[in-house]
Amino acid sequence: QVQFVESGGGLVQPGGSLRLSCAASEFPFSSYSMAWYRQAPGKERESVATIDRTGGTTHYADSVKGRFTIARDNAKKTLYLQMNSLKAEDTAIYYCNTPWPGSFGFPSWGQGTQVTVAS
Predict the structure, then answer these.
(1) Residue 20 backbone phi and psi in degrees, to 5
(2) How far apart are CA 63 and CA 38, in angstroms?
(3) Sheet holding 5-7, edge to edge
(4) In the prediction, which pLDDT does 64 show?
(5) How many helices (H) and strands (E) does the chain have?
(6) CA quadruple 92, 97, 100, 104: dihedral positive or negative?
(7) What would the DSSP string read from start to end of 20-62?
(8) Nearest CA to 3 among 28, 20, 30, 26?
(9) Three-state SS for 95?
(10) pLDDT digits (tens, 9 = 90+) for 12-49
(11) Residue 70 near residue 54, CB atoms below 8 Å
């Protein structure tokens, strides 16, 4: 079964930056919109940012607008999330997926990558 592979997480101080990557080698990546999600301890998974299949249109949750940037490289089948000015409340496991995870034959969730913002 196709799964996305997230990487790039880690421990960072408040105000710091991280760049997450998501590999989609076995998926028709360039044909679909993609998204980054996150799930903090004790909270439901939420959408953080979305990007259309060409990379021309992006949307962000209000909580990350102006700080996070979603991008994609269709030739490399890779999705990115540049995270700047990180805050403690950004601490979560970050996942990539389509806007329809586990539905209509689209892949379900991968392992995610842990982002911890702490001093």
Answers:
(1) -95, 150
(2) 12
(3) 5-7, 18-23, 78-83, 68-73
(4) 98
(5) 0, 10
(6) negative
(7) EEEE-TTS-GGGS-EEEEEE-TTS--EEEEEE-TTS--EEE-T
(8) 26
(9) strand
(10) 999 999 999 999 888 999 999 999 999 999 999 999 99
(11) no
Report the DSSP pairing between strands 113-117 and 10-12.
parallel
CA atoms of 113 and 7, how far apart (whole Å): 6
Q: Give the H/E segment covering residue 69.
A: strand 68-73
Query: Residue holding tokens 């999330």?
Result: 81
Residue whose token pair is 């998926």: 27
pLDDT digits (tens, 9 = 90+) for 52-61: 999 999 999 9
The label of the residue with tokens 């990558």 reads 113
CA dihedral 26, 92, 101, 81 (to 10 degrees): -50
CB 97 within 8 Å of CB 106 = yes
d(CA 68, CA 104): 29
